UniProtKB/TrEMBL annotation:
<keyword id="KW-0677">Repeat</keyword>
<keyword id="KW-0186">Copper</keyword>
<feature type="domain" description="Plastocyanin-like">
    <location>
        <begin position="42"/>
        <end position="154"/>
    </location>
</feature>
<keyword id="KW-0479">Metal-binding</keyword>
<keyword id="KW-0964">Secreted</keyword>
<keyword id="KW-0732">Signal</keyword>
<feature type="signal peptide">
    <location>
        <begin position="1"/>
        <end position="32"/>
    </location>
</feature>
<dbReference type="Pfam" id="PF07732">
    <property type="entry name" value="Cu-oxidase_3"/>
</dbReference>
<comment type="similarity">
    <text>Belongs to the multicopper oxidase family.</text>
</comment>
<dbReference type="InterPro" id="IPR045087">
    <property type="entry name" value="Cu-oxidase_fam"/>
</dbReference>
<dbReference type="InterPro" id="IPR008972">
    <property type="entry name" value="Cupredoxin"/>
</dbReference>
<dbReference type="Pfam" id="PF00394">
    <property type="entry name" value="Cu-oxidase"/>
</dbReference>
<dbReference type="InterPro" id="IPR034285">
    <property type="entry name" value="CuRO_2_LCC"/>
</dbReference>
<dbReference type="InterPro" id="IPR001117">
    <property type="entry name" value="Cu-oxidase_2nd"/>
</dbReference>
<dbReference type="InterPro" id="IPR034288">
    <property type="entry name" value="CuRO_1_LCC"/>
</dbReference>
<feature type="domain" description="Plastocyanin-like">
    <location>
        <begin position="167"/>
        <end position="317"/>
    </location>
</feature>
<dbReference type="GO" id="GO:0052716">
    <property type="term" value="F:hydroquinone:oxygen oxidoreductase activity"/>
</dbReference>
Amino acid sequence: MEAYNLTVKPWCSCLLLGLFAVITFLSSSANAETHYHEFVIQARPVKRLCRIHNTITVNGQFPGPALEVRNGDSLVIKVVNSAQYNITLHWHGIRQLRNPWADGPSYVTQCPIRPGATYTYRFTIINQEGTLWWHAHSEWLRATVYGPLNIHPKLGSPYPFSTPKQEYTLLLGEWFDRNPMDVLKQALFTGAAPNVSDAYTINGQPGDLYRCSGKETVRIPIESGETVLLRIVNSALNQELFFAIANHQMTVVGVDAAYTKPFTTRVIMIGPGQTTNVLLTADQPPAHYYIAARAYNTAMNAPFDNTTTTAILEYKSASCSTKKGQSSRPILPRLPAYNDTATATAFTAGIKSLSQVKVPTAIDENLFFTVGLGLNNCTRPNSPRCQGPNGTRFTASINNVSFVFPTTNSLMQAYYQGVPGIFTTDFPPVPPIQFNYTGNVNRGLWQPVPGTKLYKLKFW
């Protein structure tokens, strides 16, 4: 038998490495799936707080369907608008890399889907794992049109922590005891702040502390000693929320589809649109414990919903009498005060990257944004359309520019097709007036300038 001495020259080595990379990519792509869904936007009767409302839902569900995918999977979602409103859907947090037409903000990346029309979203999950969510992106339809988008690791890829026995998604929301679109319509007419919600919800249910709600309170079953993963989403329209579980600590392991360095806490603070993944270990005496959420609100003299929503963490080994409700009510967690900024700050300070992050040091563009709520003066103060402070109208703004929706084209369509007169490219990179950004706003910024202004950035 002859022995062969195989010598590979450098260029061959590069070729072999390239082939290996291609084979690796193809093998990982082979495991990726394409998920097809049809979402029918439709009004359906939903009963909450003793009353039935004709509520905009997806496939008759409130909250809407859960999307369970893996990193690398693609989604094709046909949206059929059978409701009476224009609508778009936004896949909150998905990196729409070179695929902005699937992002969904109405009049920005697309025109709304009109009643009776359909639109198909197509996008791929690229290097993201964890919890995101989807929701309507047209006015206040997202008060009821939303659902989770859970991204699991690729097949064969583990979590960066011990695999939990079970996973549960908890969608925190706001419920209005009337049509949310009417609440918005009234606010736009009067110029005053919109009415606050009548209840907070967990997975669409207000919980035991509200009228006519106890029977449908969400229950999370758990075995003594086991660890579960809770995917927590703040689907509320406007409200930051404190969240806690009575007598239990949580270990934060991810936020907004990114893993984080684990840390333990008894309370989390979560803003609208944010997600937080926590590990929960059933290490307490078998019983029933309240899961609860309520407002974190520091705005002085601003009304807010000060109620508390609950679900129940239910140990499976708890006594039968407890399960039948014959014992006392479950224990409530000690939630922070509504204006407890120290607790909110301590929580956010604990969120750190799982690994070192390389931050770019060469800055091409320097932008400084101030987001605020301005006041437009009225020719007839205190008239029915001027019910804001001192006879004005509230107006949101960034760098003192209040966005005006285009009427004929979406911004992206106008940009790609070179349609003039839809937007200008003079959005200010800094506030027009410098002031103490943590104190009172300069009077020169009280009245924003209306406009459809953009700021162009290069894509690298």
